[in-house]
Amino acid sequence: MGKQVVGPFKQIVTAAGLPVKGAIKDESLEVIKNGGLLIDDGFIQEVGSFDQLRKSGNEVLELEGTHICLPGFIDSHTHICFGGSRAKDYAARNNGKTYLEIAKEGGGIWDTVTKTREASKEELVEGIIKRANRHLEEGVTTIEVKSGYGLSVEEELKMLRAIKEADVKSDVDLIPTCLAAHILPKDFDGDHKAYLDHISTDLFPILKQEKLTNRIDAFIEEEAFSSSITSNYFLRAKEMGFAITVHADQFSTGGSEVAVNVGAISADHLEASGDKEIELLAKSDTIATALPGASMGLGVAFTPGRKILDAGGALAIASDWNPGSAPMGDLLMQACVLGSYEKLSNAEVLSGITFRAAAALGLNDCGRIASGMKADLTIFETNHYNEIFYHQGKMKPKMVFKSGKRIF
C-alpha cells in the first residue's frame, strides 16, 4: 500500500499530547481544522492541512461531505468468545431472582461454560468474527478477547486458538487474554488453590509455546478466587513473563489491592471501589477500567470514574461484552452513558476508549492520531465532535479505517 492523503476533515481530534493519568478538560484536546492525513503502509506519516498535504504529489482520497475524524476506538475488556445465550438469566434477574438462585437453576457462568465446551473451535471462530465485525462497524478497531468459558486446559486452549484464528481472519486487531481463573469449574477434583496450581503448571507453558497470549487475568471475588491464592497465581504468571490484568472490586473490594501489589497493567470493574481503593489505584501505574455495560446489565452502580480521575488515576472504558452481565456490547453508547452519570468530559470519554484503553493493553502504536501511529480511524459525518458524544452512541461512523485500509 503506497502513500495516500485522506481528507478533508472539518475536525481531526488527535488525542495527541494528552496524559494517561488524571482529569482532562475538553479545552486540552488538539483539534485540527480542515485537516488531512498522510498515510503510508498502514501508519500515519503526517497530520496537517489537507490543502497542503494534497500538494505532496501522493494519491489523494478526497471525501465528500462534512466529516470528523477520531482515533479508532479500543475495547480493552470483552468476552466475545463464547457459545450459547443467557437471555433466560437476564429475564430471571430482572424478575427478582438472585445470582445464586439463577446458578442453582442451571444458569450463570457455568451455563456459558457448558455451551462453549459444546461448541467447536470453528463455531467459536465464526462467533468471534461476527461480533468483532459489528464492533468494527461501530468504530472499534482493536478488541481484547478473553477466554474463561473453557475452565480446563483443553477447553481454554480451544478458546485461545479460536481467538488467534479469528484475529488472522478479521480486519480487527484481537488481543487475547487467558481467564482460566474465572470460577472454579464444577468438574474439577480439587479446591481453588489446586485448580490454579494446575492451570499455572499445565496450561501456562503451552500458552508460551504456541504464543496464544501474553496476558493472564483472574476474577477475584467471594464466589470466584480469593486475594491470597490469586496473588500467588499472578506471581507465577509474572515469573513466566505474562502481563497481569484483574477482574477487581466488582461486588466486594480486595482485587484492586492485589492488582496494585502485583503490578497489574489494569484493574477492571471497580464498581465496589471506595476511597481506599481509588487512592491505591491513583498512586500506581495500573489502569483503572470501567465497564459500564456490566453496570447496566446488572442494574448496579457505575465505576466511580470521576473520583478516580480527580485522584490522579488513569481511567479506561470498556464494554465487557459477554453473554451474561453485559450482552449489549456497544462501546461508544456505554462510554457516553458513563460520562453522563459520572460527569466525565468528552475528552475523558474519548481518552477512555482510545489511548488510555491502549495503555490498559500495553499498546503504544494506536489510540492517537499522530505520526508513527497506526492509521486506525473512526470517521463521523457531522460538523463538530461534540455531536458524537451528544447523541450517546446513536450516531454511528460513516467510515472506518484499519491500518490505513478503508473497511467500509
Overview of this protein structure:
- The protein has helices at 50-53, 87-94, 99-104, 109-118, 121-137, 153-169, 192-202, 204-210, 227-239, 255-261, 275-282, 292-298, 305-310, 331-342, 346-352, 355-360, 385-390; strands at residues 4-13, 31-40, 43-49, 59-62, 68-71, 73-75, 140-146, 173-181, 215-219, 243-248, 266-269, 287-290, 315-317, 377-380, 399-402, 405-406.
- The longest helix has 17 residues, at 121-137.
- The strands form 2 sheets. Strands 1, 2, 3, 4, 5, 14, 15 and 16 form an 8-stranded mixed beta sheet that branches. Strands 6-7-8-9-10-11-12-13 form an 8-stranded parallel beta sheet.
- It has 408 residues and is an alpha/beta fold.
- The chain is 37% helix and 21% strand.
- The two termini are 17 Å apart.
- The chain has 17 helices and 16 strands.
- The protein has 2 domains: 4-72 and 368-406, Roll (Urease, subunit C, domain 1), CATH 2.30.40.10; 74-360, TIM Barrel (Alpha-Beta Barrel), CATH 3.20.20.
What is this entry, summarized?
The protein is α/β, with parallel strands linked by helices. It has helices at 50-53, 87-94, 99-104, 109-118, 121-137, 153-169, 192-202, 204-210, 227-239, 255-261, 275-282, 292-298, 305-310, 331-342, 346-352, 355-360, 385-390; strands at 4-13, 31-40, 43-49, 59-62, 68-71, 73-75, 140-146, 173-181, 215-219, 243-248, 266-269, 287-290, 315-317, 377-380, 399-402, 405-406.
